[in-house]
Specification:
Elements: E1 22-33, E2 36-43, E3 46-52, H1 57-71, E4 77-84, H2 91-100, E5 104-106, H3 114-132, E6 138-147, E7 150-157, E8 162-168, H4 175-193, E9 199-203, H5 206-216, H6 223-228, H7 230-241, E10 246-250, H8 258-274, H9 280-294
Parallel strand pairs: 1-4, 4-5, 6-9, 9-10
Antiparallel strand pairs: 1-2, 2-3, 6-7, 7-8
GO molecular function: nucleic acid binding; RNA-DNA hybrid ribonuclease activity
Protein name: RNase H type-1 domain-containing protein
Pfam families: RNase_H (PF00075)
């Protein structure tokens, strides 16, 4: 007959480990303007939201995690699923954040997280858009530069923000098509970089403005454009859906309008990077100098 097992009492001072409850929180962090971000976190325990004075959403996420850990019992492990605007935290950043806040884990979204995370992100985006509606639009000049297969695109905002991108076009597009690609990718980059403010986008390419006007009328535009660049495809959707946020108008090129001249210079630097004529460090230094020289003193033309 098999003996019945009996429990052995624990030695004095021995404490058995216990499993802590895990609480799910869905977090969204987005930029509001050049030096401010806002976060919104929601769970069954409550809602957390605040403005953080930083231009980096992943830095604002630190404030969000601090608010969560401070208000939720230390006996509870917090699982955070986050939608953080670019540049998003790398795995290394995530591990550093987890090391700063005990029993807080940043995890990728599972199937059950998609809907609540979408609701949080949508609510924050709507709040930011409502707040931006009371502020003047940010004026942004965009431009492109093409030489051979090298393409550079850039934008410069009146508040000093700027950006650029470069690439070598491996397709057989003629020069006129590459110019259109460069101009549209410049506008797309500006709209993507400043996602929650009203923008007044100045362009010196009438062909690009004609394409944007066709998109707004519900037309597809040139068929080859969709395959030319994924950035342009996303830009077309933004143009169609963000009518109240985005305005586009023509300005004459090389006519002394400082924002446009600055964007033109930035696009040429980006194109020279694609040609490997200038180094990354030199391009960054020169781009920063151009933005500092052109944006603060830019005189913005009145809309006609």
């Amino acid at each position: 007959m098999t003996p019945v097992p009996t429990a052995i009492p624990l030695a004095a001072g021995v404490i058995m480990p216990r499993v802590l409850p895990v609480h799910d929180v869905h977090l969204a962090v987005m930029r509001f303007d050049a030096d401010r971000c806002r976060y919104l976190a929601m769970s069954g325990l409550g809602t957390w939201s605040a403005e953080v004075h930083t231009r980096w959403p992943r830095v604002a996420a630190i404030d969000a995690l601090h608010a969560l850990r401070s208000s939720i019992s230390s006996d509870v492990s917090i699982r955070v699923v986050a939608d953080i605007e670019r540049p998003r935290p790398t795995p290394g950043h995530a591990r550093q954040l987890e090391a700063c806040f005990p029993r807080v884990r940043l995890e990728s979204a599972h199937a059950a997280d998609h809907r609540p995370l979408e609701l949080v992100s949508s609510a924050l985006r709507k709040w930011l858009r409502r707040a931006a509606a009371t502020l003047p639009a940010i004026v942004v000049a965009t431009d492109g530069s093409v030489k051979g297969a090298a393409i550079g695109s850039a934008w410069l905002a009146a508040n000093g923000e700027y950006g650029s991108l470069r690439r070598v076009d491996r397709s057989r597009h003629p020069h006129i098509r590459r110019v259109l690609i460069a101009e549209l990718e410049a506008a797309a980059a500006a709209v993507d970089a400043i996602p929650n403010r009203r923008l007044d986008v100045l362009m010196d390419c009438r062909d690009a403005l004609d394409v944007i006007a066709a998109w707004r009328r519900g037309g597809p535009g040139p068929a080859w454009l969709s395959a030319a660049s994924p950035d342009i495809s996303a830009f077309r959707r933004a143009v169609a859906s963000d009518r109240g946020r985005l305005a586009f108008r023509w300005v004459p090129g090389h006519d002394g309008m400082l924002l446009n001249e600055g964007a033109d210079s930035l696009s040429k630097i980006a194109r020279r990077r694609a040609e490997r004529v200038v180094t990354t460090s030199d391009a960054r230094r020169r781009s920063a100098d151009i933005a500092a020289a052109f944006a603060p003193q830019a005189l913005v033309p009145e809309a006609s």
